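ok trying this again, last paste got cut off
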Amino acid sequence: MRRAVILGVSVVLAAGALAAAPASAYVPGPVDDPLRTAGVALAADAAADAGITFGTCPKDSGLTAPVQCGKVAVPVDYADPGGRRINLLVSRLRATGPASGRQGALVFNPGGPGSPGLWFPAVGLKSAGPVTRKLWTTSAKTYDLIGFDPRGVGHSAPISCVRPETYIHAPSPDPRHPSPATKNRERTKARTTADGCRKRSGAMLDHMTSADMARDLDVIRAALHETRLNYYGVSYGTYLGAVYATLFPRHVRRMVLDSVVNPDPQGVWYGANLNQDVAFEGRWADWRAWAARYDSVYKLGSTAARVQASFDLAMRKLAKKPAGGSVGPGELHSAAENAAYYDQRWVTFAHQLSRYLHGDDKPLVAAEAPDRSGAKAAENGDAVYLAVQCSDAAWPRDWGVWDRDNSRLALRHPFETWPNAWMNLPCATWPAQAGEPVDVGAWAAELPPVLLVQSERDAATPYEGALELHRRLQGSRLVTEVGRGSHGLVSIWNPCLVSRVDRYLTSGDTGDADVRCAGHPVPVPSGTLGAKDANTGRYY
């Protein structure tokens, strides 16, 4: 399951400038195979020699000065560094503080896999919302803020699986309780998608693993003339960071991993998705309990069970008559998924559902009607998601295994089980050879301390994943937000959590022990308008 992350983390940084050095100043850890290790070294040296010529960003990026963009060339296949190359687009906002206080570049990945990251430096601009600006102001003085579109994404040799103009199908049915006929249709759709990925993406499909992307990250590091990498990864970006730290432990300087993917090779990625399904049921229960507490506002029911009944009623009504002609049960379920990801969306979703059930479908249609102008980007993101997850590790090829596992799980955890299965089912017939998951944490003794940040009830990256990575990365520290479940704590203002990230990025100090932070305040409705967005000042 893939979602883009919301912005913001406070980074109070100080002195400690890091001098540039050749890419060859450090040597990768002996985990990668020798041929690709040599390929990365060659590509990194070439990138260090070439540097990055930063200039105007593409018009369709939405980025303007002082944010700049430039290209970094990487091999498609690191085992053949002299073969085909592609360009990765990198963005930068120069550190605004004095040279004596700068600490190099801070590279960001928002997750996915498949989410574009070019936008990241804009968080350091005065035009950003007040909360976002507050969170990144000091870091923008101390670090160059670096974003990039990973290989296959956006402006970096994008791949595709289906024609974007045919990608969006709306209204869509309830995905939770499939009939045998629905399962057959989804199997056919998945096979068609997998075949389309090969036809439309060609040889790139054979080189879209997390390890490939980690190698790209090291070439970007070299092109930035950084001897060691400062990195902030969210969601899948934590797995990318963990793979990078395993392949290049001596190239890591500071690393914050926020909302941690479980790196256990036994779960990458089939088992991890099944674990997500269990966690999403709990998170959906959190929202229903919250909505029941505000029955006086939303009239959805005074108990979690009654709220569920209201949701199910809306799903049935939309199946008979889609709102606005394009918002059906599938679209309402997607809105519910977003509420399960981020409690910033709780008020929004409750308002939309309530108004719909009380005769006003305008808020729901305005928010959830498909945006066909975004079909190209959405299709590209899903193509990369599949290309990475289907290639990182082997998936069951037997439909009987999928049907058995998901049918059993859906009996108690229906909210996300089958929707998640349909998203991933192309992996059952994936037309590229699957690799072996990286044994994350090998050579962890070579690493400086890494900071892990995690909420206890996160559904997209369940808490057990943070514990597993914490165990694997010797010397790491774990900061836990207790009793909350928003995904991507980069999006949450929690002073306890933020202070630990601040201190780490300032000095590299992870503290003497793990920390458990009280949860941030849950949303509170504000009349019939909903809640006020702290960044924009608008009600939603």
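PB: full thing came through this time. Residues 4-26, 528-540 have pLDDT under 50 and may be disordered.
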